[in-house]
What does this fold into?
Amino acid sequence: MSIQSEIMARGKPDAVQFCAYVEDDESRAVVEQVVRDLVIAHANVVKGSIRTAIKALGQRRSPKTLIVDVCKSELPLSDINELAEVCEPGVSVIAIGDRNDVGLFRELLNSGVSDYIVKPLTPTLVQRALLATADGDSRSRQTTRLGRLVATVGARGGVGATMIATSVAWSIANRRRRRVALLDLDLQFGSVALSLDLEPTHALREALENASRIDGLYIERSMVQHSDSLFVLSSEEELIDEMPHDAEAVTTLISELRNKFHYVIVDLPKSLTRDSCQVLKDATHLVVVTDLSLAGMRDTLRLVQLALQGNAACQVTIVANRVGEFKEGEIAVAEFEKAIGRKVDLKIEFDAKNVAAAMNIGKPASSHSKPVGQSIEHLIDILSGVGASQKPGWLARLWNR
Ligand SMILES: Nc1ncnc2c1ncn2[C@@H]1O[C@H](COP(=O)(O)OP(=O)(O)O)[C@@H](O)[C@H]1O
Ligand SMILES: [Mg+2]
It folds into this structure.
């Protein structure tokens, strides 16, 4: 694939697909020449540093490929870290600088940068770096730069898994300004679109039936946009229809989404299908939602065991929801924890009035109910690693992993 078709392959054709922030006129002229030589359409070469890039990209869609100048940067690695926070996960970043330092080169590569070029730039050096980002080898090096995959599942029907998936997605997108894709894998009974007051579509079913057509552009056209950072993919299918089950299509779809979104949140159906198990295998996080009932306790335990069997690295969070609804009949949290052999990470109280009011007008529960909103923020802290007892290093945090 040519660099141009590679760069154009994903995203809207009219969006800027290549962007360079370069300080000095000489280097800028070289990059501009390479853009002309490789006939890269929709390119933008501007005067500026990595700081300019951070500021600009925090407010708009990321290009597919990005060149940033780290010459004047006192802490290039922490600047790259900051850049990763504002960029979409799948961006290829080439850094340019004036320090011919093997240590820095290695650290930049480790941190997800595709290449580091030392000034003075030449057209050959820049071309080679751009072509390398377009080939398969360099892409496999970028596997750490994927959005988080958060699966939510209810231990019982009606415990609030969908309420939590939509509230978490909405809050990450609107309060934390991250790009979020929300998928409802229950093609028949799913209620994600309904709870966000979105038009029902057949988009997810069509995507799963046309795995070979799944690419960035196809997905972008299929998703329903709830806000500038929240995108929903769901289906509302006939109740008696046979649903497609293609674990490979699910994998393709999710890996495309993880390239474009900081968070991919998947609301799994109550009865786990093979597709759900595929999501569980790849999930970075699993949120098991339960009530404090005997059946909830048994199935929480079974779900956690199933998820960890296939994916030991998955970070599991247990949420007890609707707490206080049946004060007398609820199992004490300590007893519940003893039975499942792990902590209940979060308790969300039952707030009938405000949650129902939010649902009825198609708003996420967390925007209407104070206690639910606070718990959802706490859950997002857990999912994003904020306040974790063992703080991840900056390398681990890079590209939002
Ligand atoms: N903390 C809560 N307080 C009050 N009502 C809740 C709470 N959590 C969920 N609900 C309500 O419970 C019902 C079931 O929630 P839902 O998210 O659809 O469950 P699930 O997806 O697990 O089947 C919905 O009407 C929802 O509004
Ligand atoms: Mg549900």
Notes: Confidence is low (pLDDT under 50) at residues 1-14, 137-144, 389-401. The chain has 18 helices and 13 strands. The first strand starts at residue 18 and ends at 22.
